[in-house]
Structure formats: structure tokens, C-alpha cells
Amino acid sequence: MSRLPTVAGMVTRGEVFSKLLHHLEEAQDMCATLSHLHNTEDSEKDKAMARGWIMCSEMMKRARENIIILAKGTIQ
């Protein structure tokens, strides 16, 4: 079984792009969840980890936005 999404057995740009965006959104959500879980602890280390995870979540969001721009072909 192929890990690539297909339409009628053929790999398409649209399906691959859609799957990529889905995984980036999932990664963003998981990073935000890890941030939340670290924020439930009281130590300074956990607070720093929470800030790091939320920054990773924001990086995933920006990567997703940049990938959408790339796919549109509007890069200058």
C-alpha cells in the first residue's frame, strides 16, 4: 500500500498538497497541546518548555502559510 494519496491509483499534486497541509496542521495542534501540558506544571523548566512548544506551533503555522503561497505560484 502506497503512503502517497492517489485518485484512481494515480498520485496527484492536489491530493499530495492536501495531505501535506493536513499533516502540518496536525503538527501545529500537537505542538500547542504539548505547550499546554507543560504549562500545567509549576517548574521554571516546564514554563520554558511550554514557550518553546508554542513557538514551534507558530513556526508550523507560518510554514503552512508559506507552502500555500508557494503552491499558488505567487512568490516574487
Question: How does this model look, in words?
Answer:
The protein is mainly alpha-helical. The protein has a domain at 15-67. Helices cover 74% and strands 5% of the residues. The chain contains 2 helices and 2 strands. The chain has helices spanning 13-39, 44-72, and strands at residues 6-7, 10-11. A two-stranded antiparallel sheet has the order 1-2. A hairpin with a 2-residue loop joins strand 1 (6-7) and strand 2 (10-11). Helix 1 runs antiparallel to helix 2 (44-72). The longest helix is centred in the last third of the chain and has 29 residues, at 44-72. It is elongated. The model has no long low-confidence stretch (mean pLDDT 92).
Distance between the termini: 39 Å
What is the H/E order? EEHH
The major beta sheet can be summarized as: 2 strands, antiparallel
Total E-strand runs: 2
Q: Which residue ranges are poorly predicted, with pLDDT under 50 across at least 5 consecutive positions?
A: none
Rounded to the nearest angstrom, the radius of gyration is: 17 Å
Which structural category fits the helices and strands? mainly alpha
Overall mean pLDDT score?
A: 92
Structure annotation, total helices: 2
Strand order of the largest sheet: 1-2
Q: Approximately how much helix is present in the residues? A: over 70%
Q: Based on the structure, what is the oligomeric state of the protein chains? A: single chain
> Strand percentage, roughly?
5-15%
Estimate the global geometry from the Cα principal axes. Answer: elongated
